[in-house]
Amino acid sequence: MLYHLLVPLAEEHPFFNLFRYITFRTAWGMVTALTFCYVVYPPFIRWMRAQRMAQIIRAEGPQSHLETKVGTPTMGGVVMLVGIILSTLLWARLDQPVVWMALAIMASHGLIGLIDDWKKVMQRSSDGLAGRWKLVGQFGSGALVLGWGYHAGIIEPHLVLPFFKDATVHFDELVPGMAWLGWAYVLFGMFVISSFSNAVNLTDGLDGLAIGPVMTSAVTLAVLAYIAGNINLSEYLYVPHVSGAGELTVFAAAIVGAGMGFLWFNAYPAQIFMGDVGSLALGGALGVLSIITKHEILLALVGGIFVIENVSVLLQVASFKLTGKRIFLMAPLHHHYEKKGWSEPKIIVRFWIISALLALVALSTLKVR
User: Fold this and answer.
1) Which are the contacts of 290, defined by CB distance < 8 A and separation ≥ 6?
2) Rg (CA), the chain
3) For 58-73, b where at least 16 C-beta lie within 10 A, e where not — what string?
């Protein structure tokens, strides 16, 4: 919004030329989201406590959670999402469709999470929205947004393989004369977004555990979005050029800023939890960022912590059904280490360190190519 309002004034006042630069708007987008969250969270937390909108703790979870986390307000993701949306609308160029696609995926997944959180609180149960309805909502919103993007020519049905210079799978060219197979990429994109949305949700089990890797992933994707949107950098680093992708740097930075503002109040011991409204939305946002910037496979490395947590649940369930035995003391993986006696802060910080290392490894692949 500010770009469209102030850049035309640059001819008379050179100062407004600053608003042309993505780097300038990215920095202030992050600051805006952080400031909004820092200011809004205290009254929001007080209001949520007064309304008794507390997180419902699962009885089958670690016993320590029943002793220390009961009564902590939930749905903190609402403030984050509002901060991210406002910041993006203020600082990004709104004539770029990719910005609206990213916002649509994040907002729709946030709505699914809000319904889930609301049901849990109102029914005083940890069940919430049935899993099948979550998937219907996730795949439905993904189909609408990605389907529109593909139909409009914004999303190319190409899958770029990391670590290689020119290794690309063209869905629309897999079989000669069957260009309609390009729609299979839309299905793949829907799977990526839904999987990552749920993976972040699974990771959100300890104070600050999920938001740390979300921020490191968002920083990494911000760098990749900037490169993809800059034709000179993208050609030099063998990254597919995506028109308008640079504006997603503002969106990703807003996620980081809002995450920092949230972490101020979510750090151990947490004053508020993000809830599914936050975790599903942020996971969906990371997923759609990877789709638009053509780093879908690299996302598995960027967000490796979320992948590991997701896989730990799948392995636990498969092992128990096939052999009647459990691989881990409890899944997701962070609960396994809780059961082993690790303190909550130790688990959180070590997972953050691993997440940061994975992000650095992911960025290093740019030169490996």
Assistant:
1) 192, 196, 221, 296, 298, 299, 302
2) 21
3) eeeebeebeebbeebb
Per-residue pLDDT of the chain (369 residues; tens, 9 = 90+): 898 989 888 888 888 899 999 999 999 999 999 999 999 999 999 999 998 887 766 655 565 554 566 778 999 999 999 999 999 999 999 999 999 999 999 999 999 999 999 998 888 877 788 889 999 999 999 999 999 999 999 998 989 888 777 778 888 877 787 778 889 999 999 999 999 999 999 999 899 999 999 999 999 999 999 999 999 999 888 888 999 999 999 999 999 999 999 999 999 999 999 999 999 999 999 999 999 999 999 999 999 999 999 999 999 999 999 998 999 999 899 999 999 999 999 999 999 999 999 999 999 888 776
Q: The whole model's pTM is what?
A: 0.94
**Domains of the chain, residue spans:** 2-299
Is-contact 260 275, C-beta < 8 A? no
Amino acid letter, residue 215: M
Angle between helices 97-123 and 275-292 (to 10 degrees): 160
User: CA-to-CA distance for 337 and 89, rounded, in angstroms?
Assistant: 41
